[in-house]
Amino acid sequence: MHLNKISLRGFRNYVNLELDFAPGVNLIVGDNAQGKTNLLEAISYLGSGKSFRAQKTGEMVGFGAEFADLEGEIFAQERNQSVRWVLFPGKPRLLYRNGARKKSAADVAGLLPAVLFCPEDLMVLKAGAAQRRRFGDHALCALRPNYDAALAEYNRILEQKTRILKDKEENIAVLAILPEYNARLCQVGALLISYRARFYDSLGKAAARYHGQFSGGLEDFSLQYKTVSTVTDPFAPIEILRKQLEEHLESHYRAELSSLQCLTGPHKDDFDVTLNGISLKAYGSQGQTRTAAISLKLAQRELMAREWGEEPILLLDDVLSELDAKRQDFVLNQIDKGQVFITCCEPGRFTKLGKTIEIKEGQLKE
Ligand code: ATP
Ligand code: MG
């Protein structure tokens, strides 16, 4: 599956643009503020009907334009297909697939799945646990709809339990229903841990392979999933995990009552990355942190490809800076599976695996 061509009219700073893409790597080069990220946004919008940066649809409509018209020619399901979106400020959008009107993004689901890596993702390994959990959950939810459902349920119970802890200040009788909520939290929590153990194991192994190639074999990447301390083996049967979660909850019963917070459970999970046995979070350099974060994204894409039989397209926004020549070469010339879009500001970069597209003021630079 890949995007052969895109046409943009009135989309952000693109008044009128037609672009052909290579099925391999497409390197999009241009100075700051010329429209590189806008182009990635358009590509990702085609398949998802979602923008990774706009708060409102109207923001994507070019200044002075009445609507934005985006059309993509996609090779998917062994034939050429077209997807077209017409976006209006403050009015419902229109969607067409192969020329026929469609109702919702679900009608184009799976045509052009994408994995995006943006500059904010570079810091995921240095950031707080919540950001890493979000990264892991986002990837795992896309892979496993049952996990997605279990996570939503866990969060619902957690919210209700938090309300009970707060309400007890006013009415101590509500504590009578706490054990029921704790039991459900441990039941669903055990399921989450079981999914996560398997997911982080596969993700870590794939990322280690990418990081090894990326660093020219210099850095040995390892990922450790961290969960509730009473869990001795996250791969253990659900029933054992459930009991171990209950143990931890019981030992925190008083602390939860006095802090009015849910202190224990997989909602505090995290993962650690080490390079050659040294913590990346504490000691990693900028380049090492970037390399590891990109390797994780490549691994995520590989797991999706294993599931669906094909690589989602990969959108890499501005990842080359602070990487040395060898690591830049890996990004530009060694990601040889599926279609890749890479933006960069430095002129003179090129890729052996596809084509270079130069953008200036929302136009193709000849
Ligand atoms: P950088 O290298 O700095 O990341 P970039 O090439 O990725 O730059 P973009 O984020 O794609 O740049 O944005 C390019 C320009 O598009 C910005 O100057 C912005 O003002 C402009 N722009 C954003 N939205 C619209 C819009 N709705 N209509 C017209 N121009 C817009
Ligand atoms: Mg940009």
Structure description:
- The chain has 366 residues and is of the alpha/beta class.
- The protein has 2 domains: 1-113 and 310-366, Rossmann fold, CATH 3.40.50.300; 128-305, Glutathione S-transferase Yfyf (Class Pi), Chain A, domain 2 (Up-down Bundle), CATH 1.20.1050.90.
- It has helices at residues 36-48, 129-143, 145-167, 178-214, 238-251, 253-259, 280-283, 286-308, 325-333, and strands at residues 2-11, 14-20, 25-29, 68-76, 79-88, 91-97, 100-102, 114-117, 221-226, 270-275, 278-279, 313-317, 340-344, 354-360, 363-364.
- It has a 6-stranded antiparallel β-sheet with strand order 2-1-4-5-6-7, covered by helices on one side. A 6-stranded mixed β-sheet has the order 8-12-13-3-14-15, sandwiched between helices.
- Helix 9 links the parallel strand 12 (313-317) and strand 13.
- Helix 2 (129-143) packs across helix 3 (145-167) and helix 4 (178-214) crosses helix 8.
- The longest helix is centred in the middle third of the chain and has 37 residues, at 178-214.
- The model has no long low-confidence stretch (mean pLDDT 96).
- Magnesium ion is lined by residues 36-37, 317-318.
In short:
The chain has helices spanning 36-48, 129-143, 145-167, 178-214, 238-251, 253-259, 280-283, 286-308, 325-333; strands at 2-11, 14-20, 25-29, 68-76, 79-88, 91-97, 100-102, 114-117, 221-226, 270-275, 278-279, 313-317, 340-344, 354-360, 363-364.
